Amino acid sequence: MTGGYGSVIGATLGAAILAMSTTGFQTVRGWNEDARFAFLGGVLLVAVLLTTTRARRLRRHDEHI
Length: 65
What we know:
There is one protein chain. 80% of the residues lie in helices and 0% in strands. The chain is mainly α. The protein has two helices and no strands.
């Protein structure tokens, strides 16, 4: 794990997505707690994959300049 980079906007968007999904799961009937945690885990996994892919593309772009 690395750290020390990111933005306030990204952190705010991430927190808003997690808060909205938690609120949404509370309003949907029939979804249990396990489904909620699986969904949030998927959201976090997608966020990590997008961040990693973006960082690799930026590094490749910087190497070609």
